[in-house]
Write a structure and sequence with these properties.
Blueprint (H helix, E strand, L loop, with lengths): L5 E7 L6 H17 L4 E3 L13 H4 L8 H13 L2 E3 L3 E4 L6 E8 L5 E6 L5 E4 L2 E4 L12 E4 L2 E5 L8 H6 L5 E6 L3 H19 L2 E6 L1 E3 L5 E3 L2 E4 L5 E5 L4 E7 L1 H10 L2 H4 L4
Family: Belongs to the carbon-nitrogen hydrolase superfamily. NIT1/NIT2 family.
Pfam families: CN_hydrolase
GO molecular function: hydrolase activity, acting on carbon-nitrogen (but not peptide) bonds, in linear amides
Length: about 270
């Protein structure tokens, strides 16, 4: 008997500096995804806060196990009976002036089942456009995957997308989830290209939930949240603005791709 398909959803947002307003918008979109039948829902990177003040996230960082943002994620998961991949949120770091950029995962009963702290910190300079995440973020160390309702899920965040060795280190997964706030400049050039590459080389689905639009601070994120199948085909996407992207993860599709082109078995390195 074949394993049934599992519906997954990516939430796209254009978050601002008001945490409660962002949580309300996230809650609305989670409800929309759940109503569409999604069993696993992923929020974008820094869904609770995007501010022109890069130190603002330090002021709202939360300790492990408590706080407004973690309570929100727990409640949304249990209320809507979905597995919720909480995009990313600022968690306490060892340094008092930094955060961990963390993805927290809650099951459909509101239990925390996984945490991933972003390993690769973005740095970029082109003309007047400049980013240095290491100024306010402390890097994580551990590769994380978990068994969810749609199979084995590997966790990553935004800039991690450029480092294929991270995804290889996850082992064999059925789904890669990547919350992001890609810049418009780098997104235009590389977003879809890299996402499809990760799907093809790992022969799995990729769910990318992005920030997508012009934020109150003036920053513009690329958006284009999408779901990609194991052959590299984009099966659902939302170019810009808040909304939900929904598609079915089909285990038979994964099995067919891996049977016809057994590249994962042909690996000689790593």
């Amino acid at each position: 008997m074949s394993t049934p398909a599992c519906r997954i959803a990516a939430v796209q947002m254009v978050s601002g500096p008001d945490v409660e307003a962002n949580l309300a918008e996230a809650g609305r979109l989670i409800a929309e995804a759940a109503a569409a039948g999604a069993r696993l829902v992923a929020l974008p990177e820094y869904f609770p806060l995007i501010s022109g003040d890069e130190t603002a996230k330090v002021r709202i960082r939360e300790a492990e196990g408590g706080g407004l943002i973690q309570s929100f994620l727990r409640d949304m998961a249990s209320t809507h009976k979905v597995w919720l991949v909480g995009g990313s949120c600022p968690m306490a770091a060892s340094s008092p002036d930094k955060v961990r950029n963390s993805t927290l995962v809650f099951d459909d009963e509101g239990r925390r089942v996984a945490r991933y702290d972003k390993i690769h910190l973005f740095g970029f300079r082109k003309g007047e456009e400049y980013y240095d995440e290491s100024a306010t973020i402390e890097a994580g160390d551990d590769v994380v995957s978990f068994e969810g309702p749609c199979g084995q899920v590997g966790l990553s965040i935004c800039y991690d997308l450029r480092f294929p060795e991270l995804f290889r280190a996850m082992g064999t997964v059925d789904l890669i989830v990547l919350p992001a706030a890609f810049t418009y400049t780098t997104g235009q050039a590389h977003w879809e290209l890299l996402l499809r590459a990760r799907a093809v080389e790992n022969q799995c689905y990729v769910l990318a939930s992005a920030q997508g639009g012009r934020h109150p601070s003036g920053r513009r994120t690329f958006g284009d949240s999408m779901i990609i199948d194991p052959w590299g085909d984009v099966i659902a996407r939302l170019p810009e603005g808040p909304g939900v992207v929904v598609a079915d993860l089909d285990p038979a599709r994964i099995a067919d791709v891996r049977a016809s082109l057994p590249a994962l078995k042909h690996r000689k390195i790593g």
